[in-house]
Design goal:
Number of domains: 2
Structural class: alpha/beta
Radius of gyration: 21 Å
CATH superfamily of the largest domain: Type I PLP-dependent aspartate aminotransferase-like (Major domain)
Strand order of the largest sheet: 3-9-8-7-6-4-5
Shape: globular
CATH class of the largest domain: Alpha Beta
CATH topology of the largest domain: Aspartate Aminotransferase, domain 2
Bound molecules: pyridoxal-5'-phosphate
Distance between the termini: 52 Å
Strand content: 15-25%
Order of helices and strands: HEEHEHEHEHEHEHEEHHHEHEHEEHEH
Helix content: 25-40%
Largest sheet: 7 strands, mixed
Oligomer: single chain
Number of helices: 14
CATH architecture of the largest domain: 3-Layer(aba) Sandwich
């Protein structure tokens, strides 16, 4: 149920951003003030204090909510802050079911922060949806999933898992960071909450760390609003402005990310020295059919395994020149990284092996540079390994 029926291309530029009433500024003003004057005690005009609410943040929250087709948006100082704020809806003794191939920092929150506070998490490969059903106990309070997964780019069926969660009265949270609302809209498929690391595609320029939650569930929205203010992990107005600015080109950027990544994935799949390419847009990908049903494009992320062990992938990564060796993803610039050494190092080796993150796995975030230049870079780095 879209709250605003205009197309996503239009919403990305206009939602939540009417010309400002005081000066008619066309672009959203950056309101840095931490506090707001009251006409009489306890009667604020609109805002009181910038932790509780801020005009620039409110514009961003409205825009994100519109893009995800949700009624309420909440911005945070990072994706992890958004996640932990949401997880504070839980209490000691509660149980969570999570996908088994989640962002390393999300796994760490479940394993090292929630667990000592008495909240247990069961990690399941949600490709088999009956496993989600089997993992539900009397104490389960939340189902958490990420699709496409990171770094293996497995897909989970949001509609089916949402139906199972709904049948048990459990909220389903979908981390939509890898797809962005341009390619996947979890609320329309039955999810209760969408979570984002806006650090990635949403901002898209690798110059902000931020996060967001979007929901149409009134009770949950009220609780999240309370927790956002009580915990205070909120973004600065400057960062909100930058994310709003990045959002305006999200539709255009995503179209190009998908186009270039599809092209490179197909070429990599036939390249010498490459054992396997994980890209849901490839017909050879086990979740290709689900990708076509659930997503409006397979995304800008590719992971691949090279022949040999850790050494060839180290050499490959060191040889890249346009792809920068760095963590993170979703920016205009292409990045490459080694999950086992970098982003997923906080996941114990035996867990990594179980979910299939091998030591030769390399992850690419395909940026907006010329696709032939990107291919030449990859081809040269592959040749240097042989
Ligand atoms: C980066 C990321 C996060 C965490 O977000 P931060 O902004 O780094 O705190 C969560 N989920 C996914 C899929 C991510 O890529």
């Amino acid at each position: 149920m879209a709250v605003d029926s205009r197309s996503l291309d239009t919403l990305a530029i206009h939602a939540g951003q009417e010309p400002d009433p005081s000066h008619a500024a066309v672009m959203q003003p950056i309101v840095l003030s931490s506090t707001f004057a009251q006409a009489e005690p306890g009667v604020p005009k609109r805002f009181e204090y910038s932790r509780s609410g801020n005009p620039t943040r409110e514009a961003l929250e409205a825009c994100l909510a519109a893009l995800e087709g949700g009624r309420h948006g909440f911005a945070f100082g990072s994706g992890s802050a958004a996640t932990l704020t949401l997880l504070h809806t839980l209490r000691p003794g509660d149980h969570v079911i999570s996908g088994d191939d989640v962002y390393g920092g999300t796994f760490r929150l479940f394993d090292k922060v929630l667990k000592p506070m008495g909240v247990e998490t069961t990690f399941v490969d949600m490709r088999e949806v009956t496993r989600v059903e089997q993992a539900i106990t009397a104490k389960t309070r939340l189902v958490w999933m990420e699709t496409p997964t990171n770094p293996l780019l497995k897909l989970f069926d949001i509609r089916k898992i949402a139906a199972i969660a709904k049948g048990k009265g459990l909220p389903l949270v979908v981390d939509n960071t890898f797809a962005s609302p341009m390619l996947q809209r979890p609320l329309e498929l039955g999810a209760t909450v969408v979570m984002h690391s806006t650090t990635k595609y949403i901002n898209g320029h690798s110059d902000v760390v931020g996060g967001a939650l979007v929901t149409s569930d009134e009770t949950l929205a009220e609780r999240i609003r309370f927790l956002q203010n009580a915990i205070g992990a909120v973004p600065s107005p400057m960062d909100c402005y930058l994310v709003l600015r990045g959002l305006k080109t999200l539709p255009v950027r995503m179209r190009q990310h998908v186009k270039s990544a599809s092209d490179l994935a197909a070429r990599l799949a036939g390249a010498k020295g490459v054992r396997v390419v994980h890209y849901p847009g490839l017909p050879s990908h086990p979740d290709h059919a689900l990708c076509q049903a659930q997503m409006a494009g397979a995304g800008g992320m590719i992971s691949l395994e090279l022949d040999g062990g850790i050494e060839p992938s180290r050499r490959f990564l060191s040889a890249l020149r346009i792809f920068t060796l760095a963590e993170s993803l979703g920016g205009v610039e292409s990045l490459a990284e080694h999950p086992a050494i970098m982003t997923h190092a906080s996941i114990p080796p035996e867990v990594r092996r179980r979910v299939g993150i091998s030591d030769s796995l390399v992850r690419l975030s395909v940026g907006l540079e010329d696709v032939e230049d990107l291919w030449n870079d990859l081809e040269r780095a592959l040749a240097s390994v042989r």
